[in-house]
Design brief:
elongated, disordered C terminus, four-stranded mixed sheet, four-stranded antiparallel sheet, about 40% helix, about 650 residues
C-alpha cells in the first residue's frame, strides 16, 4: 500500500494544480483531476443561456475534444448495457429527453430517466451552482435532439429518425458527409455531448470551472456509502470497491485495484468479500489514482504500454534513473539553482575513474542540496504494465530516501560511463558527452534499433534494478552488445559507433577504465584492440577524404575478435599498399604498431578469442589518434611522446 500512500501524499502536496490545464510536448492537454472527475472525448458542445434556453451547438474540432467531467463510482466503471449516467456531460442517448421520439433504440430502462433524476438531485442540492441549474432547466424540456437537428449538428433520415451510420444514399438529402460522422466512430447516438452556459460576466467553460468541480465534489461527498477503516491512510472514511481506470491514457480500461467477481474461486477461500482483503477509502483511491494519471502524463515514459515513472512526494522533478547522463544534466539546470555544466568530452577524456566520479557527485550535489530544504522528499520509482485489457500490475516499486537515491545515481553514472557521440542538441547538431547511456539506448546496443518493443521494455525493466538497487548488469545483455559491436559490417556506421560506445560503457562497469589511452596496460585483449585501431586509422588516412567504404580492419573486426593472431596477419598484408601510399608519414604508424605489438607476450600472440577489453583498447587508441593526430610525417615515434607534444 506504500505506493498508494505516496501517490495520495503527492496529490495533497499539489492541490494548487488541481484542474489546471497543462500541455505535453505534442500540445495534448492534461490536468491533475479533481476528486470525482474523469476525462472524456466530447464530440458536441451545446451552449445554453442563463435562463435555461438553447443558444447554439457545434461539432468539436479533434484538437478540442478532451473534456473534464464529473463522474460517480458507477459511471466511471460502466460497461455494456449497464445504465449508469455521468452527472452532467454524457452520451446523446443519456442526455436527450426526446431520444426515443427520434428512433432511439429502446432499452430495459430509459437512460434519460436515470440521468435527469441524478442531475435534478444535484441542481436542487445546497451545493448547486447557477450553471448546473441552467443546464437542468434546459434538459428538462426534452428538446435536445430537435435543437441539434435544427443547428445541423446531427442528422435524420427521410423518416425523421436518427441516421445510424453515414451512407452515400443520404447525400441527396444532406449533401457531403457531415463532420459529426467523421468524428464519431460508431452511431450518432453514441456522440458525447458537453454543455456550457453563456454568461456575460463569466466566460469560463463549464468543464474548466473550479466552482463547478467543488460543487459536485461537495454534493457527491454527501452521498457516499458506509465508513470503513482505510488501509492506506489509517483513517475511518467512506470506502469504495470501484477504483479508477484510464490510468495510462483515455482509452485504458485496465485497473490496478479490482475485485468484481463473487462467484467461482475469486478469493480462493481466504475471504468472504473483497473488503476483507483490503479496504481503501473513496477519497484516497480517487486522489492516488488521479495523481498517478497526472504524473504519467507529465513525466512518465511509456514503451509498449509499460509505464516507467519516477517522482518525489514534494519535489516532482526527480532525475530519471533510466535517462542518460546528458539528459540528466539538462534536467539539473533550473534557473533558480546554480548552473551545473555537463562534463565536456575533451575534459572527460583525461579524467581518471575516481576524478570523474567526483565530478558526477558534484553535479548531483545541486539536486541533493535542493531537496535538503524539504521536510520529506522521498523518491518513488514505479513500473506498471498489463497482461490483459482489464488488469494493470505493479511490476517494480521502490521508495527511497533522497540521499540514498542520489548515491545510487552517482554510482551508476560513475561506473557505466564512456564517451558518446550520438546525441543531438536542439539545433540538430551532434553533441559529444561523457557518461552513462539511457536504458533505452542500452537496449538499442544489445538488440538493435528494430528490436521488438516487448524485448526493449523487458530489458529496461531488468536494467532498472542495476541502477537503483546496485545489481550487476545481466551478463547476457553485455554479451549481446559485445557481439553486435564486434560486427560493424552488419550495421550502418552511425549505428555501429553508437553501439560501440554504449558497449564500452557496459563493459566499463566491471573494468573501470578511462577513455584516455592507457599506454601502461599490458592486457592481451586491450593491446590487440589497440593494434586494430591503429590499422583502421592508418588505412583511413591513406584513403581519399571522400572515400566512405569501411577499412579492412573494420571489415575483419568480427573475425579478429575470435582469431586475433591469424586475422592480424591478414590485416597486415592488406595494409601494405596503404602504407606505401602514405609515404614518409607511415613511419609514425609503423613505429606505433611495433611498440604495441612488442608489449604482447609471445605466448599470448595466439588465436584464443579476445575478451571484451579489446573494445576498450580499440576505442581508446582510435580516440587518441583522432583527437591528437599527427600533424605531418615528422610525427613522434611513440604514443607517449605524441600525447605530450600534441597536448
Amino acid at each position: 500500500m506504500s505506493w498508494l500512500l505516496n501517490l495520495y501524499e503527492t496529490y495533497e502536496a499539489n492541490l494548487g494544480r488541481v484542474g489546471e490545464i497543462e500541455l505535453k510536448a505534442n500540445n495534448t492537454e492534461y490536468t491533475l483531476l479533481p476528486v470525482s472527475h474523469t476525462t472524456q472525448n466530447a464530440h458536441i458542445t451545446v451552449e445554453i443561456t442563463e435562463d435555461g434556453d438553447f443558444h447554439s451547438a457545434t461539432v468539436n474540432d479533434k484538437s478540442d475534444i478532451n473534456t473534464l467531467i464529473p463522474c460517480t463510482e458507477e459511471s466511471s466503471s460502466r460497461a455494456g448495457s449497464k445504465i449508469a449516467p455521468y452527472p452532467l456531460h454524457d452520451k446523446l442517448s443519456y442526455v436527450a429527453g426526446d431520444f426515443l421520439a427520434y428512433g432511439g433504440k429502446i432499452k430495459k430502462e430509459e437512460p434519460f430517466v436515470a440521468y435527469i433524476k441524478q442531475l435534478e438531485a444535484w441542481a436542487n442540492s445546497p451545493h448547486a451552482t447557477s450553471k448546473v441549474k441552467s443546464i437542468y432547466r434546459y434538459l428538462s424540456k426534452r428538446e435536445l435532439i430537435r435543437d441539434l437537428v435544427a443547428s445541423k449538428v446531427i442528422y435524420l433520415d427521410a423518416n425523421h429518425k436518427l441516421i445510424d451510420k453515414w451512407d452515400k444514399k443520404y447525400e441527396a438529402l444532406h449533401g457531403d458527409k457531415p463532420p459529426i460522422f467523421a468524428l464519431v466512430a460508431a452511431e450518432q447516438e453514441s456522440a458525447f455531448v458537453r454543455f456550457n452556459v453563456r454568461q456575460p460576466d463569466d466566460h469560463t467553460a463549464v468543464w474548466k470551472d473550479p466552482e463547478m468541480y467543488n460543487s459536485f465534489i461537495q454534493h457527491y461527498s454527501s452521498l457516499l456509502g458506509e465508513e470503513d477503516y482505510c488501509f492506506v491512510s489509517g483513517k475511518i472514511l467512506p470506502g469504495t470497491e470501484r477504483h479508477a481506470n484510464k490510468i495510462r491514457h483515455a482509452g485504458d480500461k485496465a485497473k490496478l485495484i479490482s475485485a468484481n467477481d463473487n462467484s467461482g474461486f475469486t478469493f480462493r477461500g481466504r475471504f468472504a468479500q473483497s473488503s476483507d482483503a483490503a479496504s481503501i477509502s473513496y477519497e484516497v483511491s480517487q486522489k492516488a489514482h488521479n495523481a498517478l494519471k497526472w504524473l504519467i502524463n507529465r513525466q512518465g515514459k511509456i514503451i509498449d504500454q509499460r509505464v516507467f515513472l519516477v517522482w518525489g512526494n514534494k519535489e516532482l522533478n526527480i532525475p530519471d534513473p533510466i535517462a542518460d547522463f546528458f539528459t540528466l544534466k539538462l534536467e539539473l539546470e533550473p534557473e533558480s539553482e546554480p548552473e551545473v555544466t555537463p562534463v565536456t568530452a575533451k575534459a572527460s577524456a583525461g579524467y581518471t575513474f575516481k576524478e570523474y566520479a567526483r565530478e558526477v557527485a558534484k553535479g548531483l550535489g545541486g539536486y541533493r542540496n535542493k531537496l535538503a530544504s524539504r521536510t520529506k522528499s522521498d523518491v518513488n520509482i514505479l513500473v506498471l504494465d498489463s497482461a490483459t485489457t482489464g488488469r494493470l500490475a505493479v511490476l517494480y516499486y521502490r521508495n527511497m530516501e533522497k540521499n540514498l537515491y542520489v548515491d545510487k545515481l552517482i554510482r551508476w553514472h560513475s561506473t557505466c560511463a564512456w564517451l558518446h557521440k550520438y546525441r543531438k542538441d536542439e539545433h540538430g547538431d551532434v553533441v559529444t558527452f561523457y557518461g552513462a547511456p539511457s536504458t533505452k539506448d542500452i537496449a538499442f546496443a544489445a538488440y538493435g534499433p528494430k528490436a521488438n518493443e516487448k524485448v526493449v521494455k523487458g530489458m529496461m525493466e531488468r536494467v532498472l534494478p542495476c541502477i537503483v538497487d546496485g545489481h550487476k548488469i545481466p551478463h547476457d545483455i553485455i554479451r549481446s552488445a559485445f557481439y553486435r559491436a564486434s560486427n560493424p559490417v552488419a550495421m550502418e556506421n552511425w549505428e555501429w559507433e553508437k553501439t560501440l560506445s554504449i558497449t564500452c560503457a557496459l563493459i566499463n562497469t566491471k573494468e573501470e577504465y578511462n577513455v584516455a589511452l592507457n599506454t601502461e596496460e599490458d592486457d592481451r585483449s586491450y593491446l590487440f584492440g589497440r593494434l586494430l585501431a591503429i590499422a583502421d586509422i592508418l588505412e583511413r588516412r591513406a584513403l581519399d577524404s571522400d572515400e566512405k567504404r569501411s577499412t579492412n580492419a573494420i571489415r575483419y573486426m568480427n573475425s579478429f575478435s575470435k582469431y586475433p593472431a591469424r586475422t592480424w596477419s591478414t590485416i597486415q598484408s592488406c595494409l601494405q599498399p596503404h602504407q606505401a601510399r602514405l609515404g614518409t608519414r607511415v613511419r609514425f604508424y609503423s613505429n606505433l604498431i611495433d611498440e604495441v605489438a612488442s608489449k604482447i607476450k609471445i605466448e599470448d600472440f595466439n588465436n584464443n578469442a579476445l575478451t571484451s577489453k579489446y573494445l576498450l583498447g580499440f576505442y581508446s587508441q582510435r580516440h587518441e589518434l583522432n583527437h591528437f593526430k599527427a600533424k605531418s610525417d615528422a610525427s613522434p615515434s611513440s604514443s607517449t611522446t605524441t600525447n605530450q607534444e600534441e597536448r
